[in-house]
Design brief:
Blueprint (H helix, E strand, L loop, with lengths): L21 H26 L3 E6 L5 E6 L2 H10 L10 H44 L12 H20 L7
Antiparallel strand pairs: 1-2
Helix pairs in contact: 1-3
C-alpha cells in the first residue's frame, strides 16, 4: 500500500526587506549571523582563505569571526603587503581551523545564554516591581512570608477589637 503524502512546501524564497517585528528581527539576525560565520569558516577550510567578519546587531552589539584571527586579517589588509605573510603548514592550519570553529561555536552559545539570562533578568525585574506595587495583604495567604503573616494576624486582632467596640447600627 503506497501512502500518498502531500508534497511539502519546502524552503520558500522570502522577500528581502526589513523585518518589522523587533523580536523576529533579532531571532533572524542571530540565526543568519551563525550561518554567515559557518560559511566563512567553511571558506577558510576548503580554500585556505583568510576571512574576517565584523557584524553589529540592531541593538549595537558587535560580533566578529576571523580566521586566523580578526586582528591578523585586518592587519594584513591594512598593510597591503602580502610579502609579510607566512603561510602556516596545512596540519597547523586545519588544527587551528577546528579550534577556531569550536571556539566560535562556544562563543555563540555563550552569547545566546547571556541574551536569554538578560531577558530572564528583565522579566524577574518586572515581576519584582509588580509585586512591590501589589499590597501584601492582597496576595494569596500561602505566598505570604512570616513577617507578613504576623502583620496580618496583628491587623486582624486590631480589627476584631475595633468591631467589638464600635456601636452597632441598630443601637444608633
Amino acid at each position: 500500500m503506497v501512502s500518498k503524502r502531500k508534497p511539502s512546501m519546502g524552503r520558500q524564497k522570502i522577500e528581502i526587506k526589513r523585518i518589522e517585528k523587533e523580536d523576529a528581527r533579532q531571532v533572524t539576525f542571530s540565526k543568519r549571523r551563525a550561518g554567515l560565520f559557518k560559511k566563512a569558516s567553511e571558506l577558510c577550510i576548503l580554500c585556505g582563505a583568510e576571512t574576517a567578519i565584523i557584524v553589529f546587531s540592531p541593538a549595537g552589539k558587535s560580533f566578529s569571526f576571523g580566521h586566523q584571527s580578526v586582528e591578523t586579517v585586518v592587519d594584513r589588509f591594512l598593510s597591503g603587503s602580502p610579502q609579510n605573510y607566512v603561510r602556516p603548514t596545512p596540519l597547523n592550519d586545519s588544527h587551528r581551523g577546528a579550534s577556531v570553529r569550536d571556539l566560535n561555536k562556544q562563543y555563540t552559545e555563550v552569547l545566546n545564554q547571556l541574551e536569554a539570562e538578560k531577558k530572564r533578568g528583565v522579566e524577574l525585574e518586572k515581576m519584582r516591581k509588580a509585586s512591590r506595587n501589589q499590597l501584601w495583604w492582597e496576595s494569596p495567604i500561602n505566598e505570604l512570608g512570616l513577617r507578613e503573616l504576623e502583620q496580618l494576624r496583628a491587623s486582624m486582632e486590631e480589627l476584631k477589637k475595633n468591631v467589638a467596640v464600635t456601636p452597632r447600627f441598630s443601637e444608633l
